[in-house]
Amino acid sequence: MKKILLLVLGAIFLFAVIMLAAEEKAVVTKVYDGDYIKVKIDGKSYKVKMLGSDVPDKKWGTAKNIKDAIKDAEKYVKDLIDNKEIKLVSDKSAGDKNKKGRLLRYVYLGSTLVNAELLKKGYANVSDESFSKKSTFSGYATKAEKEKLGIWSDAVKKEGIFSKWFGRNKSEDDAEADTEDVKEEVVSSKETKAAKEIKDTEVKSRTTAKDTDTSWYKSSMASKIVYVTKAGEKFHKKGCSHLTESATTITIKEAKDKGYQPCKTCEPLKDL
Q1: What is the pLDDT of residues 152-177, one digit of tens each?
Q2: Tens digits of residue pLDDT in 243-272
Q3: For 124, which of 65, 91, 92, 118 could close a Cys bridge (C-beta 3.0–4.6 Å)?
């Protein structure tokens, strides 16, 4: 009996050691957006992606209500944890870092799990990576969607957030450097004033969708909503003279996959 008790106590101690090793105290030094922050741990800076929560990137904020939803998420996180001490907890199921080299962590302020609060308030959707709390997080997102909070509101849906953000090529999007990374790279490098001005111009051009040939912009345009009719063989822009009252919506990608051709009158591919 004594041996069994010692084994149990040993197992509990080992579990406690593992749990402590998976936790890190950090201070938030910058909030980039709703699910992406910068912290200091023992004097060293790290970038952290909040595990399980996927807040739309600023580059998807092309319409008023979408912009507002993205800003609301960022403001919420800033007000809650900016310049404060937090606890970071890793999840073995997710791994240590994402493709951009950011730490994947649950972010706690006291007993508040910030990742979960983003989902509860409708600021985020559940992210694609594997993690142990996925089922619980999915429940939070489903509830927020039913209550039409944040990104799930009718106003945001009407502006096409689902066809752009949810329909993007996530693997490409996750692998490419974002605006904030590029800006920091420019500021931190030791270069002449003339060289810095050239670099700033490059940063600006990379963040202007219509002036560049970025994969995320192509993806969003491929997910643009167009219209088709049951008897027709073409897809159209809204308001095209060839549309009837029975017209239904479809993305450009879906239309092409189903064999529809672009209408020559309204030219729905003209903006691509």
Answers
A1: 888 887 776 555 555 454 544 554 44
A2: 887 788 888 888 888 888 888 888 888 755
A3: 118
Average pLDDT over residues 69-74: 89
CA atoms of 73 and 89, how far apart (whole Å): 21
- Write down the CATH number for the domain with range 20-159: 2.40.50.90
Judged against a pLDDT cut of 70, whether residue 189 lies above it is answered with no
Write the CA distances from 79 to 38, 66, 207, 246, integer angstroms: 15, 20, 27, 48
Per-residue three-class SS string for the chain = CHHHHHHHHHHHHHHHHHHHHCEEEEEEEEEEECCEEEEEECCEEEEEEECCEECCCHHHCCCHHHHHHHHHHHHHHHHHHCCCEEEEECCCCCCCECCCCCEEEEEEECCEEHHHHHHHCCCCEECCCCCCCHHHHHHHHHHHHHCCCHHHCHHHHHCCHHHHHHCCCHHHHHHCCCHHHHHHHHHHCCCCHHHHHHHHHHHHHHCCHHHCCCHHHHHHHHCCEEEECCCCCEEECCCCCCCCCCCEEEEHHHHHHCCCEECCCCCCCCCC
Provide CATH 2.40.50.90 ranges for the chain.
20-159
Average pLDDT, the chain: 77
Please report how the helices 179-188 and 193-206 are oriented relative to each other, as an axis angle in degrees rounded to 10. 180
Q: Is 42 left (phi over 0), alpha (psi -120 to 50) or beta?
A: left
